[in-house]
Task: inverse folding
């Protein structure tokens, strides 16, 4: 996500940092490179030009030329302008109705039906709501089936009426069903349509008029770049939607849609889809996204994802085992599973300041833990609980059973032992204090 843009911006600022003397000329040259980077990322030309003009005006006003660290000051100004460009602050979804009615709109293939399911799960788990998904795509039978499958998967109710070919009627019946069954939110999934299809656009406008939704969300594929922005403009003219959802932001996208869409339609980005799993949905925070674009990481989101997977009872149980030096491969495996639940591994690494840049050319695969898990699963229950049992013969058997080799088994054993020692040391306050006292003092 934004990898190419981040690299190009980084190179642009490096040119400025490398100058012996900062002048208005080389500040202008740097911003020319910034504008070029934005255009290469498929940002709207007018948006890119206005953005760099405003950065330059503020840079000159803040005496970048006489600053001790002009490069850093210019990055700070650019960061602030990026945040402003993407909306300034996060915009919450409106949940005021009884039930709250949310109307989904979007192009064919934008990921709208999948996002409908993701939003249902988000409202259920994060907001404590009881959602109902309503299948109003009367043109694609597979869309109704897909919504039912997603509903079963996430444990959310789905309403459909396969014999009915009137989207307005289905939407009304769905809302009535919600009122009778205590659903607090109704999410209406409409047919994917082409912006130029007048009949389909009129149909969704009729659904809007009939149900008077509390929130209209426009779902767009971030990978379509500038086309996404143009489509958003057309939909907004017809529906006057409340917010934008950018899907497939984890793909090979240049990021132009995220940077242009707010300026062009003056509507906030509310959520971003970051993967295929149903929980791969993030609230859109302009400041955090600006951090990531400029290679500053996103520690806040990383911590939030970790907290979501944090199990207090399990943590206390683990703490006791570590204190007694009983940390086992079962515990090790449990920790790996929690990390995997946090999301795409390369995405997580990119949230750590400095690390994302350092590892940008490293191929971090989704199945990075596959061999480790295979080795642990090839151990007997006794070996997993008591790693000290594992001798040379057992290692040979484990390597053969896991489809790996003895070197990989030895490597994992060493990593595990080092982890166990570090955990034991950190749980022992006296030992930690002693280690800190023995550390060499600065200047001695």
Result:
């Amino acid at each position: 996500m934004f990898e190419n843009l981040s690299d190009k911006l980084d190179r642009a600022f490096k040119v400025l940092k490398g100058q012996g003397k900062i002048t208005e000329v080389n500040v202008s040259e740097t911003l020319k490179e910034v504008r070029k980077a934005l255009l290469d990322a498929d940002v709207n030309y007018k948006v890119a030009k206005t953005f760099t003009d405003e950065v330059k005006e503020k840079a000159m006003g803040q005496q970048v030329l006489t600053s001790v660290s002009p490069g850093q000051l210019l990055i700070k100004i650019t960061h602030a302008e990026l945040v402003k460009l993407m909306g300034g602050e996060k915009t919450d979804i409106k949940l005021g109705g009884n039930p709250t009615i949310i109307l989904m709109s979007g192009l064919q293939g934008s990921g709208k039906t999948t996002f409908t399911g993701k939003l249902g799960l988000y409202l259920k788990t994060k907001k404590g709501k009881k959602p109902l998904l309503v299948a109003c795509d009367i043109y694609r039978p597979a869309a109704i089936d897909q919504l039912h499958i997603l509903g079963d998967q996430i444990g959310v109710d789905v309403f459909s009426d396969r014999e009915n070919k009137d989207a307005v009627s289905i939407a009304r019946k769905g809302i009535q069903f919600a009122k009778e069954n205590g659903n607090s939110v109704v999410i209406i999934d409409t047919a994917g349509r082409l912006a130029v299809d007048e009949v389909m656009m009129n149909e969704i406008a009729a659904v809007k008029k009939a149900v008077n939704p509390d929130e209209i969300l426009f779902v767009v594929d971030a990978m379509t770049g500038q086309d996404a922005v143009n489509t958003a403009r057309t939909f907004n003219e017809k529906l006057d939607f409340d917010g934008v959802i950018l899907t497939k932001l984890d793909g090979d996208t240049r990021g132009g849609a995220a940077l242009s869409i707010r300026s062009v339609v003056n509507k906030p980005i509310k959520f971003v889809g970051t993967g295929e799993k149903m929980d791969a949905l993030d609230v859109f925070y302009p400041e955090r996204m600006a951090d990531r674009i400029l290679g500053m990481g996103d520690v806040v989101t990383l911590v939030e994802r970790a907290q979501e997977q944090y199990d207090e009872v399990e943590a206390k149980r683990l703490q006791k085992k570590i204190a007694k030096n009983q940390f086992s491969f079962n515990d090790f495996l449990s920790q790996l599973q929690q990390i995997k639940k946090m999301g795409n591994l390369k995405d997580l690494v990119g949230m750590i300041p400095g690390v994302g840049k350092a590892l940008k050319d490293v191929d971090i695969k989704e199945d990075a833990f596959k061999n480790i898990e295979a080795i642990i699963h090839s151990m007997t229950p006794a070996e997993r609980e008591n790693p000290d049992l594992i001798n040379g013969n057992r290692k040979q058997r484990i390597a053969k059973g896991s489809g790996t080799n003895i070197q990989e088994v030895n490597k994992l054993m060493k990593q595990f032992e080092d982890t166990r020692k570090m955990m034991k040391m950190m749980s022992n306050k006296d030992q930690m204090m002693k280690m800190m006292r023995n550390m060499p003092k600065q200047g001695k």
The beta strands are 100-106, 131-136, 157-159, 185-190, 215-221, 243-247, 269-273, 281-283. The radius of gyration is 26 Å.
